[in-house]
């Protein structure tokens, strides 16, 4: 069946643009299946189409830097092939999906992301940074929306904090850039998006 042309695409318009508010179809504790109405130009003009994604609240990963070294923590993770995985400190930007609903289809304010990063760096890494800046956003894919925001923490200092949120963090150390690269290659750092972010940062700053 031939699709109805809604209107012609303007000169400066993108091939795919939003066409209304997202709609939650099925919701769980972790996230939801969400419909996104879009206008898509297939060559003849804009047609109305509906796309579905699984949407969950985004997370943070903090690249803490000191003397050309990066802080990693050794943590037990069920989703990795190894019993323990070396990871960047990080966690949720927003604690629950209910709180996150207001941001579906929108950008989260940078200050919200920065504050979440400060909290996770303090709770997990027992570190505070004089400067915390947003480096990049890593997207999961077209059908799953789970963004990770990578933050750069500079001029850090150790702080006392009793962290107990269910994670099993057994160690935390500073690793030189060349050590980090080897850990990415051997799989000791198992989160693929973090491996890519670390490689990118080290190549630009070594």
Question: Which key features would you list for this structure?
Answer:
206 residues, 13 strands, elongated, alpha+beta, 4 helices, 6-stranded mixed β-sheet, 7-stranded mixed β-sheet
Percent of sequence in beta strands: 35-45%
Amount of helix: 10-25%
- Give the overall shape: elongated
Run of helices and strands: EEEEEEEEEHHEEEEHH
How many DSSP E strands?
Answer: 13
Cα-based radius of gyration, to the nearest Å = 20 Å
Overall pLDDT score: 92
Largest sheet geometry:
7 strands, mixed
Termini, distance in Å? Answer: 56 Å
Number of helices: 4
Structural class: alpha+beta
Low-confidence stretches at least 5 residues in length (pLDDT < 50)? none
Short note summarizing the structure:
By secondary structure, this protein is of the alpha+beta class.
Tell me about this structure.
- β4 and β5 form a beta hairpin.
- Strands 6, 7, 8, 9, 10, 12 and 13 form a 7-stranded mixed beta sheet that branches. Strands 1, 2, 3, 4, 5 and 11 form a 6-stranded mixed beta sheet that branches.
- The protein is elongated and about 60 Å long.
- 22% of the residues are buried.
- The protein is built from 4 helices and 13 strands.
- The termini are far apart.
- With 206 residues, it is α+β, with helices and mostly antiparallel strands.
- α3 runs antiparallel to α4.
